[in-house]
Amino acid sequence: MVIKETIRMSIYDNTERMLHIYVPDHLEKEQRCGVLYMFDGHNLFYDEDATYGKSWGLREYLDRTGLPLIVVGLECNHEGNMRLCEFSPYDFQDRHWGTVKASGKQLIRWMIEELKPQIDAFFPTLPDREHTALGGSSMGGLMALYGTACASKTFSRGACLSPFHSHIMGPLIRDLKRKIEPDTRFYLSWGGNECFSKKALATYTEANLKIARTLMPQAEVYLHLYPNQDHSEASWEKETPIWMKELGLIKKENF
Fold first, then answer.
1. In this predicted model, what pLDDT tens digit does every residue of 114-134 receive, in sequence order?
2. Predicted structure pTM score
3. Which domain holds residue 9?
């Protein structure tokens, strides 16, 4: 089942934000689950909630497979360029979106210090880092990448699909060189049809390869280029069984 609950965000003047929380329907008595925290929660479960009318279809997938997994999706701020501000750890300038004043670092801290304790208090979770993961796409993919690397004492897995990293590769690479806890895994993917030219695709590919090379001395990295996929929920939905398996989420032992 998917539960929709509002939560007050202290870092944003206690404004309310919607959580989209998937909990397996048929848990055994006293059974506890790993937790996957994801960004853009409105795009995860139902087409009618999704920004562009197509979700990741995660509810159907999890219902069908019976995975013992709780998914907590945080909805973004839909006003202006605030999604970019909240889902970026770094300030940057963009020709289309203008000035992006980042609060992504504060958001990750809020998730660790306020959101996660509330989820652990009200749901049957396994709260240790081994059973706590991050996931997202585009700006959410960036946040999953940054959060898993820089808060690996809390998150042991990162599903980073089509991560945004234009304008911010310098500070991102510096942060990815921080100490990462052992047994941390990253899934990093992108589609061949996400870019408007072969040159842009080559640039995006090289950036992802650089990210992977930076992480590999300390972490496991599962790297994928899908030639025929684009930058959309329909494409990311196809990847779900792959990253779930490679990150170790598909295990009856609650990953």
1. 999 999 999 999 999 999 999
2. 0.96
3. 2-246
